[in-house]
Design goal:
The complex is a heterodimer of chains A (132) and B (445). Chain A has 132 residues and is α/β, with parallel strands linked by helices. In chain A, 48% of the residues lie in helices and 16% in strands. Chain B is of the alpha+beta class. The radius of gyration of chain B is 31 Å and the shape is elongated. The chains are: A alpha/beta (132), B alpha+beta (445). At the A-B interface, α1, α4, β6 and α5 of A face α1, α2, α3, β3 and β4 of B.
Chain lengths: 132, 445
């Protein structure tokens, strides 16, 4: 019986571990010179918002956190998101956001780009705005 | 890879190893044996976790794990090398390569080339073309000169009716973005009326069906509207509480009806006037729409209007003031695609005495996605006054009704297979019915 309890405890621990990993939401960040709302962010990543005042908004994707960002913020799956950008590019001549591969690259880009917008999987530290 | 991502990667490996071991133990003969087996394997897994955790800590500290690969000067007298992890090394290499690529300056990446291509077949009754055929090969580029100046170039290669290949500078636009509310394009563009013409145009893979609505076809393929314009186009959108308000305003060369035989009525084809308007007339038009948010997210409704003066090249020239207006809606949400557009014409005869003519054309299409499948149906009607020289002089300017039904299968997000049947009834200049079955493979890249 104790052994079975031990196994159950292990199973629960594994489930808790997996659940905790899945619950990590993306943290949206912008260059300090740029202020955006969460609603603006969706427009930015769908090509509806290109300028903020005189600043050209420069979004970047983050391959390591994209799945969560698309499902939680953009509300589209990857295939529909890609199709939306193909339509936008074809109609309006826009180019989809370039893709960075890690949080560190995204943070670096956002820090040094006045219109930089990105998203990361964990707390970004100082030097960027966090969109709430 | 970040520390947290690296930890997750190792954790995933541990889970991947541990879970099959746990599952495999279910094959043991008795409960006691199974539990013993599980316990043994869990202990093995725990040891593996400890080893991997140690490895992670070493990596985090930047400790050299593979001295043989990067030997220090004293390598020959150093402690025995720890075993390398080829997979981890490979992942790190790939990360570095991808990272280097993604951090390249835009200027070093060249210009992205995108496009569409399609091939297909048609099976039709006697008197109509059947067999395999090439569709279009369409390339487009979207280079950006500065934050505000952008370009859109599109080149189309298309198989003509005579079997030759036609090349068309489909679009050549140079644009300036003042802000989100205003972008001004100059050049040749897809005339922004309704929804279909700018959303899909030569993007066969983007549109659900194989055929466009017949009355919205390209000028050289049977269309009755100037789907291209050379001139200026202002476009933009304004965010409001309930959604987004968008607009297009454009002006450009008026089209001409080029008669294939000036002596034969109804042998003409619209020429959008790349090199200028023959009669120095202009086309002016606009399109305003509202994209709803909230409960009606995905619904776009719009109204559009166009006016132009069109002359033909018949022996006795006809000139018509074309006035088109109408509305449209597009609902693209929850796996539904509902499209409907209406075009009403109030044309005036400027060269003769036939006066004013009313015509009308519309379509409605409904499709629903079920996984990779999208069945769809469309009904379209064009009631075109044959006393109106604008329609009477165009080869395809006759009235018709058409029913289209088909199914699309998305092999992957960039490749679509389509099968479509359509039945068309011609209702004035010519009469009669015809049926066609079409298949298409359409890709985007």
């Amino acid at each position: 019986m104790l052994r079975k309890c031990h196994l159950h405890a292990m199973a629960i621990a594994l489930a808790v571990f997996c659940g905790a990993a899945a619950a990590d939401g993306p943290v949206i960040i912008t260059n300090p010179a740029l202020t955006l709302s969460v609603d603006d962010v969706r427009d930015v990543y769908l090509g509806e918002k290109q300028m903020a005042g005189n600043v050209k908004v420069m979004p970047v994707e983050n391959a390591s956190a994209q799945a969560g960002f698309l499902s939680q913020v953009i509300k589209l799956d990857a295939a529909k998101y890609a199709t939306a950008w193909t339509k936008k590019s074809f109609r309006d001549g826009l180019t989809p956001p370039p893709v960075k591969t890690t949080d560190a690259e995204v943070i670096d880009f956002v820090k040094r780009t006045p219109g930089g917008v990105g998203y990361v999987g964990s707390a970004p530290g100082a030097g960027v705005n966090v969109v709430k | 890879m970040t520390d947290s991502a690296f930890r997750r990667w190792h954790a995933a490996r541990v889970l991947a190893i541990a879970l099959p071991l746990v599952c495999g133990s279910a094959l043991a003969a008795t409960d006691a044996e199974r539990i013993d087996e599980l316990e043994r394997k869990l202990n093995e897994s725990a040891n593996l976790v400890r080893q991997l955790s140690q490895r992670v800590q070493e990596l985090e500290k930047g400790a050299p794990r593979a001295p043989a690969a990067t030997p220090p000067a004293t390598a020959t007298t150093a402690a025995p090398a720890q075993p390398t992890d080829p997979l981890a090394d490979r992942v790190k290499d790939l990360e570095q390569q991808v990272s280097a690529l993604s951090n390249q300056p835009d200027a070093d990446r060249g210009i992205d080339l995108h496009g569409f291509a399609d091939v297909g077949f048609t099976a039709a009754g006697t008197g109509r073309d059947s067999g395999a055929h090439l569709g279009a090969l369409d390339f487009y580029l979207t280079p950006r000169l500065t934050d505000r100046i952008k370009f859109l170039f599109e080149l189309n290669f298309e198989c003509c009716d005579d079997g030759g290949i036609g090349v068309d500078l489909e679009r050549m636009q140079i644009g300036y973005t003042a802000n989100d509310n205003l972008t001004v394009w100059a050049g040749r563009f897809h005339t922004p009326f309704g929804y279909w013409n700018t959303a899909f145009h030569h993007g066969a893979q983007l549109q659900t069906s194989i055929l466009r609505p017949k009355f919205l076809d390209f000028e050289d393929a049977g269309g009755i509207l100037p789907v291209h314009t050379v001139g200026l186009w202002a476009t933009g959108s304004v965010k409001t509480g309930g959604g987004r308000f968008g607009y297009d305003v454009y002006g450009g060369n008026a089209p001409t009806i080029q008669m294939h035989d000036p002596a034969v009525a109804g042998s003409g084809e619209l020429d959008p006037g790349l090199a200028g308007a023959g009669a120095r007339a202009a086309t002016l038009g606009g399109n305003v729409y509202f994209a709803l948010k909230g409960a009606a997210e995905g619904l776009h409704v719009g109204v559009h209007a166009l006016t132009t003066e069109v002359s033909d090249t018949a022996l006795v020239r006809n000139t018509t003031r074309v006035t088109m207006f109408g509305g449209w809606l597009a609902y693209l949400e929850d796996d539904w695609e509902v499209l409907a557009e209406e075009y009403a014409f109030r044309n005036s005869d400027l060269s003769g005495t036939s006066g004013r003519h009313n015509s009308n054309a519309w379509y409605a299409q409904v499709g629903r996605q079920f996984g990779q499948w999208v069945p769809y149906v469309r009904y379209e009607v064009a009631s075109l006054d044959q006393g109106d020289a604008y329609f009477a002089q165009q080869e395809s300017g006759q009235s018709y009704k058409r029913v289209v039904g088909g199914v699309r299968y998305d092999l992957n997000p960039k490749t679509a297979l389509k099968l479509e049947a359509q039945r068309t009834r011609l209702t004035d200049r010519d009469t009669g019915d015809y049926t066609e079955l079409r298949g298409q493979v359409a890709v985007r890249f």
